[in-house]
């Protein structure tokens, strides 16, 4: 094991061969995978929320360096599935493992290792071909003693299961601690080769998907229990408003916020539509920043009965 601290030598050197490849982040729901992806990319490419199962598809974020291109694949949290959606999400994660050059296993510093982490670690132990890096996330939430204990526990877990961690790296995505160092450590594990994405691309996520995600992120805020899982968002249409002067464009975006039961409608919409309006305002600001153009956002709430368990509905919603 080697635990790296900020004082390690950065690996960048102008003589080094150019490297390009994929690293995926896996871990329990809520471990901080998407927040870390965004911190490494330096832009929001994946939505985040203080709720499990925020991420529902793989999101690629691209880190550009002079001597390398590191493509991060943020995956949904691996968990014990309770619905067909849950099973699909887990499938997505496992398929990704087979396709990447290095696997980053995210474990939050502020929660003791639990059965969920063990379950993932056991599966990782079976993957021999890619190096595995243990990433201790959210280090800003703990003191140095707790962090040291977590480092030891993770090292121990590796030994127990026969996983040889290529590195164990403590990071804080929100306090920007050791984030660049993590990239420095991952890059040498990538194969030599030319850049895979054009310079400046930060993600390959389609605009329409990104917009739907920003709306879902705003809709997730403050909802509890089963409701976060029940929300899905689809952007139906994006049309530039006609008869606008060239210097005053407006983009009309029509989106549906799906829920699973009629009883959830009231919570999403709120008294006199207040909550839905807030979701609209909050996400519109972010969408405008993303697109660089003023937007008129039209949100409708629709019931897609039990969509998480219904193969036909799942297909319609893109799963
Ligand atoms: N204090 C602190 N909070 C963090 C950090 N990283 C993530 N969080 C918080 O942890 C929560 C979960 O973060 P996400 O990045 O959405 O977690 P995730 O692993 O992508 O979750 P899923 O997509 O549901 O699997 C959010 O509320 C984040 O703000 C960190 O470095 N420090
Ligand atoms: Mg996520």
Largest sheet: 6 strands, mixed
The N- and C-terminal alpha carbons lie at a distance of 39 Å
Approximate helicity band? 25-40%
Architecture (CATH level 2) name of the largest domain: 3-Layer(aba) Sandwich
Describe this structure in words.
- It is a single chain.
- Helices cover 34% and strands 22% of the residues.
- With 319 residues, the chain is of the alpha/beta class.
- The protein folds into 2 domains: 6-189, P-loop containing nucleotide triphosphate hydrolases (Rossmann fold), CATH 3.40.50; 207-316, K homology (KH) domain (GMP Synthetase, Chain A, domain 3), CATH 3.30.300.
- It has a 6-stranded mixed sheet with strand order 2-3-1-4-5-6, with helices on both faces.
- Guanosine-5'-triphosphate binds next to helix 1.
List keywords for this structure.
alpha/beta, Rossmann fold, GMP Synthetase, Chain A, domain 3, globular, binds magnesium ion
Task: Give a brief rundown of this model.
The chain is of the alpha/beta class and 319 residues long. The chain has helices at 33-41, 84-99, 115-125, 144-161, 179-186, 207-220, 227-230, 265-269, 274-291, 311-316; strands at residues 19-27, 59-65, 68-74, 102-108, 132-137, 165-170, 232-240, 251-259, 295-303.
